[in-house]
Amino acid sequence: MKKIAKLSLVAAVAVAGFSTANAQPLEEAIKNVEVSGSVVYRYNDKNDSKATTDSSDTNNNYKVALNLASKVNEDVKFNSRFVVGQPSNTGTGNAGFATLDTNDNGDQNVGVELTNAYFGYTGIANTTVNVGKQGLTTPWTVAVDSDGNEQTGTGVLALSTVGPVTLAAAYFNQTNLDKSTDASHDGIKLFDSKRKATDPLFGQDNALSGSADIVTVGAIANLDFVTLDAWYLDLTDTFDTYTVGAKSDFDLSGVKLGVDARYASLTLDKPVAGLLNNAEENNAMAKLVLTAKAGIVNGKLAYAMTDKDGGLTALDNDANTTLLGWNLNANGKADADYWQAVVGVDILSNLNLSANYGNIEYKSNNTSAADKMEEEEIYAQLVYKMSKNLSSYVRYGVHTVDKNNDETKDFTVGRLQVEYTF
């Protein structure tokens, strides 16, 4: 598989018409190229059981990612990432799934995005400097995701390790946040260049085209018993945010335990209409995640709470600065209380069955007359790892949405996913 991928790369370069003035024998050209990637297929099925008409929503989802790393010299490596992940006639730029609706559309072909193209310099001891188009490696974003959208930008990222501490600093002069972010309030995306000034939240002044600069600094301390981190990020003329976290894993009488705690705060720079008369909206989130595994049994208990003014603390719902379930998440929800519980058992060494529960209560908007919302999900999940690089899972359950204690939505939800990595 790797040889085929390498040969395909060489062929693509030749067809594209690149100069061959410095060409080298094929064997030399490909032996320093490292190839990795992933292939994911996902099928989703969602039905509103209370609807009077057909409300079925089914779709096929595909994402193929190919990473190529080529050694330039002893100190420099060139890295690129290609993602097949959007219908070929509607490029999205979010590096996520190609979602093909099975209800109303026929099969479509999908296109290719170049999401990473950067040079990594390691000529300084214990230091790496990445320059170019790359993933946004921060607690608020997801730089690489085999089965979801990715945040990318063009700039410089530097990491340097001194003893147990790693220091990070980055500057990006453009990003794909206008296309890839999950940040929203009541379904209105924070970064949307098509927003009108009359929109109830985040008028035109808060709409971004992805050209805003990002500056971030961070420190990670890997101590004997715990990993601590602290980060700060500023998005020009939009918001500034910070987060602190602690994570630890240990063994107690044969029981493997894990603890993950985090706090994040985000303050918008500009006034937001209709939000408790605040000139600046203050968002905050605190979460605690506990995990345990004893023999064939595993479990998880998680809790997240957000500030009464707002809970917008992440640019991707998969990021570390929020809490995500399957259909539920805490990001962008004000005055939220979110609980998760999971109990699983290993039926076989490579087959796990689990019961999953989630419940979140929050305000549907940030005004004084906010509606009370409650969402709940209960589902079973079966995970099968056929081999180290091939895994799949099946989920099936229910998702309910209550507004002011009046059940308005009752969904049955199902999913099948297969993932291959190489």
UniProtKB/TrEMBL annotation:
Top-level lineage group: Bacteria
Q: Which residues form the signal peptide?
A: 1-23
Q: What Pfam families does the record point to?
A: Campylo_MOMP
Q: Does the keyword Signal apply?
A: yes
Listed A to Z, the keywords are:
Signal
Keyword check for Signal = yes
**Protein's recorded name:** Major outer membrane protein
What is the source species? Arcobacter cloacae
